[in-house]
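Practice problem: predict the structure.
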Amino acid sequence: MLICVISELQLGSPRAHAINVIKTAGGFERLGHDVVVLCRAPADGRSPEDAAADYAEHRLRFAFAPPGLREADDPGESFGIWASRVASSLKPDLIYARNFWAPLICAERGMPSVLETHAYAGDENPLLLACLKAAVGPPVSTLSVVTISERLRSYYTACGASPNRVSVVPDGVDVDLFTPPPGTPRGDGPVTYAGHMYEYKGLPTILEAARELPHVPFDLVGGLPDDLRRLRRQAQSMRLDNVTLRGRVPHAQVPPTLWEASALLLPPSALEASKDWTSPVKLGEYLAAGPPIVASDIPALRDWVDERVVRWFEPDLARSLADTIERALAETAVQRGQRRELGDRLAQRFSYPNRARAILRAARLDLGMDEQLARTA
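Answer:
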């Protein structure tokens, strides 16, 4: 089956949505499908092969939007029109898109289309609402929607989408990439956070916890330049000698930093509305990597894991985070083995091939795709 993956990402981007799109495309490819990714060219002039290597995806094909589309009044619309035109020429069996315009246009042309959106509950973007109203029961439409939370699904159906057209599919993990090789020693390194450094991700709480635990080294991996400058100033003003800012590394080079860690931090703030629906990519990566996970006790994370595989702390409270880190560091070998076994199973559930299968199941909601997808998925 030929699948067109459409997103206005720039190949090589470190942002979570770009990683998720490219890795989901890789999930389709691992299921044996032919995949073409329609996106923007790398910003730094690198070859597609070099940029795709950042995600450890070496077998995908790419088609890049003309640079002039950046100058349009509505680049999302211009990109979507371009992508739908290219897709029409390719005659794919399925469109999977992280762009509102492309699946609307492709569905109108009779191409089975899946829109993935994480738009927050309450978002009244007219394009989002147009897509949701187009995602109606078969045989009226060829458009289906996938999202990352039952709470978002409820909002989308309230906005007009048919319940049987909206599916919940969690973010994924490349299990082969993030699982440590046999014989990898237990991580006795720093307490590690890997991801973006936005404040709502819980970075202020990490710094405060580091001040509570001066004897524990903390490594923060990732971050855009402005965020790193802000954190560096904060750490200096707090005189945190035990915090190291590693900066961004390509996605494919992240796993060893996780394997070396003595504990992994997943501390999103409960002060953000996203506490109810976030599905962080790093959750699956942490599960596959193996060290103990210390996580904010927020509804969205509770949807996917429980205390058998993570240690919960009270969100936004540094003392609670510090105490929970100390308990994680004191974990016995038996506790670690039991938690790791369960974590491995969950990581397999969140694998990108399984994510791709779930998206194909969402597409089956179009009666016209049922028989064909049953043969190929």
